[in-house]
């Protein structure tokens, strides 16, 4: 015969990491089932959420009764079993991520000896339970439900972690469901991210944009310079890639007459993982006919300020200082910007050898095989970009930086493109889009040569995209905005915290 504290031999399948506590809980599950009681019923007679009880009965004074019988559910996060009266704290997620808690009381007089004994023997922290009873305020003024009956709603087989001992960063990210159970901040991140993405959509919708869905599986990868994930489609016996951007299909839509179009969704880049990069992340791309990079700058500013208003602040505190979104959104040209930073004039005519010397002096790692344009972009990114705290549009890039951007209207050695830097980090980018199919073919042909030579980030030649441009695309501006980095800006969290279920190494590796 086994006691409640001694688990019986478990002949059923169990997790390989089952602990002694798990085995005890599994025995309790078995006891519920043996007596014909559901350990995981399909439903219970729930009448109110904990939030509704808190709102409806907030006025109760200490030791006041209502005569109102309700049925509530919640996860048991605290329990105190003392003789003839037991106390439990039930928790639900709430509508905004802030956990809502309510006390349940079980007395011998109300539930009876057998039900009270079962509560003490079978309920553990983490279980979902159903409590039916009267809404009261305890002698200490704690809003409560005095149970007439209780039942198990879902038996938890794993114990909740000890918040400060077992719930380290790795566990929080790897087992996000546990993080969501025990930390309000984790749940609030989910709701805040949803509010941010909703605000972005609302801003675009007000400007007449239409949201579309572009293919994730693609025959030709393009729209950005990045290494793709490769896969194989059995039906076509065809190698395919996961999309690295949504750009080329959105531009096809504009060619077809959808003048303002956007897609917000996952893209995949088979690259490094760090505090600001994830192989799987979310982007917004939007394209507007008859617009240019300056129109898109206004769109971007409006998007971000509207997000700030939803979050509730236009000033952001960082380790590097305060970011003021209400201040001037500055514009800095790449070549004058790097020239001022290093004290040497750098132009599109500056040679690779000169740039190598500047890189060595400022201890910036570069590849000697890079051309001058690549060198300049890297130098700016390493030396200037981290110093740009308040919103700054960095523009007048060299052509190779963005092969899909239009040549500059005044200087053919540059392109019409900008990156928005806030807090020393790129948050988004925009172009006056290249619509000349002849120049675009030249650019993509050069990219395909780089790809053939071993550049895993170079774009491929997309004949169908070029065919679309050859039908005549209207002048247009386009934006690319990293949603994860936008959330990071307004929460101060790293990218793994802003993505609900980030891609991680397998456990044990």
TrEMBL record:
UniProt enzyme class: ligase
Cellular compartments annotated: Cytoplasm
EC numbers, comma separated: 6.1.1.6
SUPFAM superfamilies xref list: Class II aaRS and biotin synthetases, Nucleic acid-binding proteins
Example of a GO cellular component annotation carried by this entry: cytosol
Catalytically driven reaction(s): tRNA(Lys) + L-lysine + ATP = L-lysyl-tRNA(Lys) + AMP + diphosphate
PROSITE patterns, alphabetized: AA_TRNA_LIGASE_II
Positions annotated to bind Mg(2+) 2: 426
UniProt entry keywords in alphabetical sequence: Aminoacyl-tRNA synthetase, ATP-binding, Cytoplasm, Ligase, Magnesium, Metal-binding, Nucleotide-binding, Protein biosynthesis
Cofactor(s) in the UniProt record: Mg(2+)
Domain Aminoacyl-transfer RNA synthetases class-II family profile: 193-506
UniProt cofactor note: Binds 3 Mg(2+) ions per subunit.
Feature: compositional bias, Polar residues: 1-13
Main location, first listed in the record: cytoplasm
Biological processes annotated in GO: lysyl-tRNA aminoacylation
Family: Belongs to the class-II aminoacyl-tRNA synthetase family.
Subunit structure: Homodimer.
Protein name: Lysine--tRNA ligase
Organism: Paenarthrobacter aurescens (strain TC1)
Taxonomic classification: Bacteria, Bacillati, Actinomycetota, Actinomycetes, Micrococcales
Gene symbol of the encoding locus: lysS
């Amino acid at each position: 015969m086994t006691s409640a504290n001694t688990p019986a031999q478990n002949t059923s399948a169990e997790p390989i990491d089952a602990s002694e506590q798990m085995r005890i809980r599994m025995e309790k599950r078995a006891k519920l089932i043996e007596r014909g009681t559901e350990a995981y019923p399909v439903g219970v007679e729930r009448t109110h959420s904990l939030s509704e009880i808190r709102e409806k009965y907030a006025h109760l004074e200490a030791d006041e009764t209502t005569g109102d019988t309700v049925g509530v559910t919640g996860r048991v996060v605290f329990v105190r079993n003392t003789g003839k009266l037991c106390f439990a704290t039930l928790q639900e997620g709430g509508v905004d991520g802030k956990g809502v808690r309510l006390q349940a009381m079980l007395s011998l007089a109300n539930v009876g000896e057998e039900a009270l004994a079962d509560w003490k023997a079978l309920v553990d922290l983490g279980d979902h339970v159903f409590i039916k009873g009267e809404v009261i305020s305890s002698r200490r003024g704690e809003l409560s439900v005095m149970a007439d009956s209780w039942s198990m709603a879902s038996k938890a087989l794993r114990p909740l972690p000890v918040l400060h001992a077992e719930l380290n960063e790795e566990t929080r990210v790897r087992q996000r469901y546990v993080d969501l159970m025990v930390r309000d901040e984790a749940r609030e991140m989910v709701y805040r991210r949803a509010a941010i993405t909703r605000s972005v959509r609302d801003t675009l919708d007000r400007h007449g944009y239409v949201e579309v869905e572009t293919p994730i599986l693609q025959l030709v990868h393009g729209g950005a310079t990045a290494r793709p994930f490769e896969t194989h489609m059995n039906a076509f016996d065809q190698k395919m890639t996961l999309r690295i951007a949504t750009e080329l299909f959105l531009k096809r839509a504009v060619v077809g007459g959808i003048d303002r179009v956007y897609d917000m969704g996952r893209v995949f880049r088979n690259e490094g993982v760090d505090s600001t990069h994830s192989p799987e992340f979310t982007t917004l791309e939007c394209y507007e006919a008859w617009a240019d990079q300056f129109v898109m700058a206004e769109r971007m500013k409006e998007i971000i300020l509207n997000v700030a208003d939803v979050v509730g602040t236009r000033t952001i505190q960082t380790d590097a200082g305060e970011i003021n979104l209400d201040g001037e959104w500055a514009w800095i040209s790449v070549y004058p910007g790097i020239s001022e930073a290093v004290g040497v004039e750098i132009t599109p005519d500056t040679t690779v050898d000169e740039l190598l010397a500047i890189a060595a002096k400022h201890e910036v790692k570069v590849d000697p095989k890079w051309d001058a344009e690549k060198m300049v972009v890297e130098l700016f990114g390493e030396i200037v970009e981290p110093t740009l705290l308040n919103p700054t549009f960095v523009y007048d890039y060299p052509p190779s930086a963005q092969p899909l951007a239009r040549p500059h209207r005044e200087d053919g050695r540059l392109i019409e493109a900008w990156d928005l830097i806030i807090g020393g980090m790129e948050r988004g980018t925009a172009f006056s889009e290249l619509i000349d199919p002849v120049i675009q073919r030249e650019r993509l042909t050069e990219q395909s040569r780089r790809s053939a030579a071993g550049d895993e980030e170079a774009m491929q030649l997309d004949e169908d995209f070029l065919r679309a441009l050859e039908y005549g695309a209207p002048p247009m501006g386009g934006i690319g905005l990293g949603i994860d980095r936008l959330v990071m800006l307004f929460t101060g969290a790293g990218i793994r915290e802003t993505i609900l279920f980030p891609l991680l190494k397998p456990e044990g590796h």
